[in-house]
Amino acid sequence: MEQTLYRRVAEDIKAAIASGTYEAGARLPSESELAQRYGASRGTIRQAFAALRADGVISSRQGARRVVLGGPRVQSFAELLSFSRWARAIGEVPAGRVVTMELRAATEEERVHLELGEGARVYHLTRLRLLSGRPVMIERSAYREPVGAMVAGMELDTVSITERLQALGVIFADAEHLIDAVAATTQDARLLDIRPRTPLLRERRRTTDPSGVALEWSDDRYIGDAVAFSVHNSAQASALSRLPSIPRPTPAEA
Amino acid sequence: MEQTLYRRVAEDIKAAIASGTYEAGARLPSESELAQRYGASRGTIRQAFAALRADGVISSRQGARRVVLGGPRVQSFAELLSFSRWARAIGEVPAGRVVTMELRAATEEERVHLELGEGARVYHLTRLRLLSGRPVMIERSAYREPVGAMVAGMELDTVSITERLQALGVIFADAEHLIDAVAATTQDARLLDIRPRTPLLRERRRTTDPSGVALEWSDDRYIGDAVAFSVHNSAQASALSRLPSIPRPTPAEA
DNA sequence: CAGTGGTCTAGACCACTCC
DNA sequence: GAGTGGTCTAGACCACTGC
């Protein structure tokens, strides 16, 4: 067994959906049938289905067979965090051009989101990201010191930071994304080669390690008509919220 | 037992987090301790934790106690779908002003997302939504015929459609959200009382019933600096994707 | 090394769907 | 009414964390 049984079952079902064996709307095999087929208990099969449910691939209701949902193919967590990995996955060539890289005092905003004390320092990187030569995004990332030091040593024009960090043993476990729309500033416009005040899709992201420590706080701005985000949710799993901007501080940030 | 045991456990933990008993970063009780406290088996407690994990409230790793994550308070699925419910939850007064309501042939886009055949008709509603008197969003929703007929009979200026539909027995089970940034059209600008080309946060949403049938396809545009979306994801549950716009059709839509 | 979560089993009863 | 998923139990072994 290369990994766990329930993961293998989940992968098999995902693959069968991807290959067209089960189309959107199709009914999947029952728990008992799969349990028999894999020589597994019902609980293990249920665990596989739960994983697919959490990723928004299938729906589930008492008494009826599970059903394949429509919607975009799922993206792995790793693929979502790494611009480079994502670009390659959609058949484009990723690139990065460093604008600034510095070790400096954290701003108020950075201290809040990275949970740092007064006077803490962060590594801050501004990078222009390109898809097959076309500028599509500006990335402004602040890294907590130990991680930032690793980043500072990399060849940032060619390298995927996330992939390199993972190779160095840094584990990204959870991410919180704040998505809104802003007008391009003059710097944004100059770097992206667009007119000022053009709509940008902004994704601010806090990435944490397995113990909940924030490692990275990033402000990524995409050209509005280049990229969209897709989110799936349901009554069972709804990790999506709508917030008033200039929000009242949340308990966690207060 | 008002509902299920694992839900009660999950609610208790959520409440304890909300009340400040456990702050962000705090370690939660072990499975065995909770199992004893509730007179439940370990499996039931694990189910409760799994629900919190799916909502992005806690993190989990082998060998260590579960940890409370930071980030915005979770929003229930119902609260997320209903503008009115959401507005009341953040202490504002929701309102709606109908711009148009018609039964007409579905557009190409609507046929694709509602999975309708050639020549199908939809109920289409355009509504301006206000938060305590301030216009913040334009909603353009298409409903599949049986549901649309119910909507057509409502007093749309005062009523929350989602709440009324749920009272009538319509069940929204899953939703797929496509989020991007667009410039305000002249109609957008006129209705929202802003300048044309102002950045808007656009949420296109397909909502399905428990069997996977699409009931509603909506294009909601928020004033950029009024609203943001928050999404949590992780290696375990990642129902979030980044898509190139003008996307290649997905298998489900092809 | 003790504690803890991750995986898995084998069975039970119930609520619901579908024909 | 047969089939199916939802809930729950009791126990087992293992991998990992943290002291």
TrEMBL record, chains A, B:
GO MF annotation list: DNA binding; DNA-binding transcription factor activity
State the Gene Ontology BP annotations: negative regulation of DNA-templated transcription
Superkingdom of origin? Bacteria
Q: Which CDD domains match?
A: WHTH_GntR
UniProt entry tagged with the keyword Nucleotide-binding: no
Keyword flag Secreted: no
What InterPro entries does UniProt report for this protein, alphabetically?
A: Bact_HTH_transcr_reg (IPR050679), Chorismate_lyase_/UTRA_dom_sf (IPR028978), Tscrpt_reg_HTH_GntR (IPR000524), UTRA (IPR011663), WH-like_DNA-bd_sf (IPR036388), WH_DNA-bd_sf (IPR036390)
Q: Which Gene3D superfamilies match?
A: Chorismate lyase-like, Winged helix-like DNA-binding domain superfamily/Winged helix DNA-binding domain
The UniProt keywords, alphabetically, are: DNA-binding, Transcription, Transcription regulation
Query: Where does the HTH gntR-type domain start and stop, copy by copy?
Result: 3-77
Q: Which Pfam families match?
A: GntR (PF00392), UTRA (PF07702)
Q: What is this protein called?
A: GntR family transcription regulator
What species is this protein from?
A: Kutzneria albida DSM 43870
